[in-house]
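**Discrete fold encoding**
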Amino acid sequence: MARYGAETSLPPRRVLRLAREFFGPESDWGLALGSDSLTAIGFHGAGGTVEVSASPRVGTPGITDVTILSREFDPAVEEFLGHLARAGHQPGLVRRTIRRIFPRQRGHT
């Protein structure tokens, strides 16, 4: 069993939702849902398991600690971590709106 850790600016429920979309029954991986709670979600199938937990970091607002336990799905978990990193760097609605209203002009600071 392999253990992975990451941190993200995404809220814990968003991390778990992304995990469900990535590993769950409706995904390309098609793993069965084993457990689902406020802080963790688990999947099983094809002789392996994936368990994803996400919780806010104590003392550091806006940071979520993510722990993933994997048995037989290490390449998929590594792909999910990349997906999670990209999702965490997407600008939020407020930032996108501000960029549309006040576009940056090249050559000016």
Summary: Strands lie at 2-8, 32-36, 40-45, 48-56, 64-71. The chain is about 35% helix and 30% strand.
